Automatic annotation (TrEMBL):
Domain FAD/NAD(P)-binding: 146-453
InterPro entries reported in the protein's UniProt record: DPD_II, FAD/NAD-bd_sf, FAD/NAD-binding_dom, GltD-like, Helical_ferredxn
Native source species: Pseudoroseicyclus tamaricis
Protein name stated in the entry: NAD(P)-dependent oxidoreductase
Pfam family of the protein (one): Pyr_redox_2
Residue ranges constituting the Dihydroprymidine dehydrogenase domain according to the UniProt record: 21-131
Keyword 4Fe-4S listed: yes
tRNA processing in keyword set: no
Length: 474
């Protein structure tokens, strides 16, 4: 260990931009065994590992880095999956630059962070290749059943933990495939769909039942689900897109980010998607403007490049240093041909029935707002028109009004519309009903959803009278 003094940080090879912009395959190659061992050996084995404390799952990162450096990969995988239900997914899509790697001690000392995410991905991909990953089969079956509404990361993480304890688990989801935003929201160049489906198949093999294409409130009532199961977990995520109130915003060609990304991901599965074939949700041959600065905006701009847009511009009202999206994703997007227009916001849209352009207001950063970030202010008289054939709104997500949609009374929500639930347990105002993930905390990261799902599974087991500890599968 302690090789960081003599060996520099090194990432897995990245495909050249001119090659990767024509397909939806992941852009990073896998570490070779020797390179993974070398990079893992750069860990300083801190007495107080900030990487671990800043990981929402508190993954035992120094331990599995040490095992990898010593070539003990099966032990490394066992440690990795003991705290993380989907380490191969987190290794691909977690914003490590803001979490574990961003708080690495040797990064702060100027030596360059350990490539934690790439090693995590390498460990689990190797485990799958060598047959070490098995379904979470319980040692004994229980009669109690739990219904989980939502097959995203929170719901799937809870399902895996509950099934491991022998509980009968049924997962209900509005889509025709499980995975939530991991399946239909995140593009394949960040997370290839087979990686998600592989985990879903493992859950099916462990005995989890999936009821897909089931829209709760329409196809099946919440009360019916509640009456069928001993406990219910709400893990729907937040799917209501924030809108933009500006002149001309109702024109055709102005679309929601989630609709756009879902359409693209369905095409990657080989589905027939009329909205894509008609050009409504297809960027081919178009001048594309994406509004927003988060990870969803990054997914949209990079998808548009791959669909053959003639130009792709991303508008963000603050500067580069203050954007919420991953800086690594911004760099990847720039390499692929995306133009970022900082300190810019839409003031309106041009076009009769179909959008033809965006009126853009130039901004400057003023005094800090309530969050401590400098508030963007409009520079008067600096507006200009940007041509556009397709405008994608990536402004974030809000919770749906679940009590109203489901016709259920007594389910308390916060002033933001999220479900009111106890911290750490997810208990709601309804007996035997729990909630986890974005529907509780608001739009957040996959890794936080996994943490919430595991915590809720623990609380549900307590509710059912089971042991409180959620242990790893053998």
């Amino acid at each position: 260990m302690l090789k960081f003094v003599t060996i520099p940080r090194d990432m897995p090879p990245k495909r050249q931009a001119e090659d990767r912009r024509d397909d939806f395959m992941e852009i990073y190659a896998e570490f070779a065994d020797a390179k993974a061992e070398e990079q893992s050996g750069r860990c300083s084995q801190c007495g107080v590992p900030y990487c671990q404390t800043h990981c929402p799952l508190h993954n035992n990162i120094p331990d599995w880095l040490r095992m990898t450096a010593e070539g003990r990969l099966e032990e490394a995988y066992a440690i990795s999956q003991s705290t993380n239900t989907f380490p191969e997914i987190c290794g691909r899509i977690c914003p490590q630059d803001r979490l574990c790697e961003g708080n690495c001690v040797i990064e702060q000392s100027g030596h360059g962070t350990v490539t934690i995410g790439s090693v995590e991905k390498y460990i689990t991909d190797t485990a799958f290749e060598r047959g070490w990953v098995k379904p979470s089969l319980p040692s004994h079956e229980r009669e109690e059943s739990v219904g989980i509404i939502g097959a995203g990361p929170a719901g799937l993480a809870a399902a895996e933990a509950l099934r491991r304890a022998g509980v009968q688990v049924t997962v209900y989801d509005r889509h025709d495939r499980a995975g939530g935003l991991m399946t239909y929201g995140i593009p394949g160049f960040k997370l290839e769909k087979e990686v998600v489906m592989r985990r879903v198949h493992l859950l099916e093999e462990s005995g989890v039942e999936f009821v897909t294409s089931c829209n709760v409130g329409d196809d099946l009532s919440f009360d019916a689900i509640r009456g069928k199961h001993d406990a219910v977990l709400i893990a729907t995520g937040v799917y209501k897109s924030r809108d933009l109130d500006a002149p001309g915003s109702g024109a055709a060609g102005i679309v929601r980010a989630l609709d756009y990304l879902t359409c693209s991901n369905r095409k990657s599965f080989g589905d027939e998607v009329p909205e894509f074939e008609s050009g409504e949700l297809n960027a081919e041959g178009k001048k594309v403007v994406v509004i927003g600065g988060g990870d969803t905006a990054m997914d949209c701009v990079r998808t548009a490049i791959r669909q053959g847009a003639t130009s792709v511009k991303c508008l963000y009202r603050r500067d580069r240093a203050n954007m919420p999206g991953s800086q690594r994703e911004v760099q990847n997007a720039e390499e692929e041909g995306v133009e970022f227009v900082w300190l810019s916001a839409p003031a309106g849209f041009e076009g009769e029935e179909t959008v033809a352009g965006v009126t853009i207001s130039k901004m400057r950063l003023g005094a800090p707002d309530a969050s401590g970030r400098r508030f963007p202010e409009v520079i008067e008289g600096a507006d200009y028109l940007e041509d556009a054939d397709l405008v994608i709104k990536a402004l974030g997500f809000e919770p749906e009004e679940l009590p109203k949609l489901w016709g259920v009374s007594g389910l308390d929500v916060t002033r933001w519309g999220t479900i009111r639930a106890d911290y750490g347990t997810g208990r709601t105002s309804l007996d035997g009903v729990f909630a986890a993930g974005d529907i509780v905390r608001g739009a957040s990261l996959v890794v936080w959803a996994i943490r919430d799902g595991r915590d809720c599974a623990d609380a549900i087991l307590q509710h059912l009278g089971a042991a409180a500890t959620v242990v790893a599968a053998e």
